[in-house]
Amino acid sequence: MHESEPDDPLWTRKPLRLALLRGSFFLLPVLLVAGLGRLTSGSWWGALGGALVAGAVVIAASGLIERALGRLGAALRHGHWRDREGRHFSVAGVSLQVHDDGRQIWLHETGVRRLLGLRDDPPDAFKARFSRHWRHTAELGLNGKGLWLDAADVHRYLGQAPNRMDPVRLRLRTYLDRELLQPAARRRSR
What we know:
The protein is an alpha+beta fold. 59% of the residues lie in helices and 12% in strands. It has helices at residues 15-41, 44-60, 62-81, 109-116, 123-129, 151-160, 167-189; strands spanning 88-91, 94-100, 105-108, 134-136, 147-150. The chain has a five-stranded antiparallel β-sheet. α1 packs antiparallel against α2 (44-60) and α6 runs antiparallel to α7. 15% of the residues are buried.
C-alpha cells in the first residue's frame, strides 16, 4: 500500500468497490437458497428456481434488509452494554465504576485504589481512610462485591491528601468535580 492511500481494508471509500462488497453480502442468501433448492428437489431446476425467488426477494427488500440488520446490531450492542451504561468511566487509563443512587454518587473501590496507589492497603485501613463515607455493594442494592466510596468524600480527600499535587490525583479530582459532582448537583437542583 502506498503512503498516499488511506487505510481502508474494506474499500468503502470507493463507490464501485462498496457496491461490490454489498452485492457479495446479498449474493450469499441467494446461493444458500439455491443450494437448499438443489438439495430438496434433487435437480438443477430447483436450484435455479430457488435462486430466482431468493434474488427477487433480496432485490425487492434490500433496503429493508439493511435497516433490519442495522437495528439488530444496535439492539445487540445495547443488550451487551446496558449493565455498564452510565456507570463506567475512565481516568488516566483506569476504569472507574460509578453508581448514582439519586442522593449521592458512589465510586467502586478498585479504580480508586489503582489511581491513588493504595492497592496494598488492607480493607480496614481503606475503610478508615474514608470513614462513614463508604457502603458495601449489597447496601446499595447492587450485584457483586467490594466497597463503594462517596465521590464527594473522595474529592475532599484528594484536596487534603499529603501528595495532592500529584498529576494523576489532580486529574482525578478535576474529573470528579467537572464530570460527576457538578452535573449531579445541577440535576438535583432542578
